[in-house]
Each structure stands twice: as structure tokens, then as C-alpha cells.
Amino acid sequence: MKKVKIYVTLRESILDPQGSAVQGSLHNMGYDEVSEVRIGKFLELQIDPSERDVDTLVKEMCEKLLTNTVIEDYRYEVEEAN
Amino acid sequence: MKKVKIYVTLRESILDPQGSAVQGSLHNMGYDEVSEVRIGKFLELQIDPSERDVDTLVKEMCEKLLTNTVIEDYRYEVEEAN
């Protein structure tokens, strides 16, 4: 069993209104040291190894369903599940 | 300048309907190897060091605004920003 962690972030050139809103709230709360807030997604899943290669599977799933590659980037890590 | 990465996940005991929906879609698409899909948030931000300690700041921000500690866990990493 493999555990896969996928990090999905907005591409740098894309505005992040959710991040801006959070940053505004943090400033209002007195955390003026904070800047460049960007918000993405973090997915964890398990893959039961089959004849298919885990890397190929993860890339396919990311590109077909999990991310919007026009506006988002992703990276992932595969580890042995306990 | 410090770069902080914050990972927010639902506590294990909390149901994740968004994760279940994504898992259902992946199964419908033929990715039957996948299980235990959980979806969380991934935040990146920069902190301009002040007299306040970065760890204290991050924990305060997470507990006051960024996470709902009743249903979510968080962990974070601090690195030197380029």
C-alpha cells in the first residue's frame, strides 16, 4: 500500500483572492508581518499497487480530475503506508 | 524573510464528504486502486521577522483564524525565503 500526498497550488501568475482575503484578515488581527498568502489544496490518498505504475497513476489522476492544470500546479510524494 | 507552509487536515475521526466524492469519481474513472482519499488545505505565506517569535505567530494565526481546531489538525514548516 502506498500513501500519496498531493499538493495543489495556484500558478504564480494567477491571482489568489482567497489568499488575499485571509491576508487582509490577518492584518486586521494585528499580524502585519504576514505577506504573500496563497491557499492551495492538500490531498492524501492510498494506492493499492497493481500492475499499473504509481507515478503514472498519480499524474493521470491529477491531470484528469484533481487539478486544473490551466491555473494550478501540483507536486506529490509517494511513501510506504504503515 | 521566512517562508511558512501550513498543512491543514481534517481530524481522523471526522468524515470527509469531499474526499469521498473525489474517491467515487476516481473509481468511476477506473482508478479502483485508490482509497482513503482525504482533502485538506495547504497555505503558503511569508513572515517578515519582527520581535515576535515565528513559531508563536504561526500557532496563534492557525488557532485563531486559519484552522478550526475542533475538526482540523495542522502542521507547519518554516524555511528561509529566497
TrEMBL record, chains A, B:
Main location: cytoplasm
Gene Ontology CC terms, in alphabetical order: cytoplasm
PANTHER family assigned: PHOSPHORIBOSYLFORMYLGLYCINAMIDINE SYNTHASE SUBUNIT PURS (PTHR34696:SF1)
Pfam families noted in UniProt: PurS
Tagged with keyword ATP-binding: yes
This protein's name: Phosphoribosylformylglycinamidine synthase subunit PurS
Record-stated family: Belongs to the PurS family.
Keywords: ATP-binding, Cytoplasm, Ligase, Nucleotide-binding, Purine biosynthesis
Origin species: Kurthia zopfii
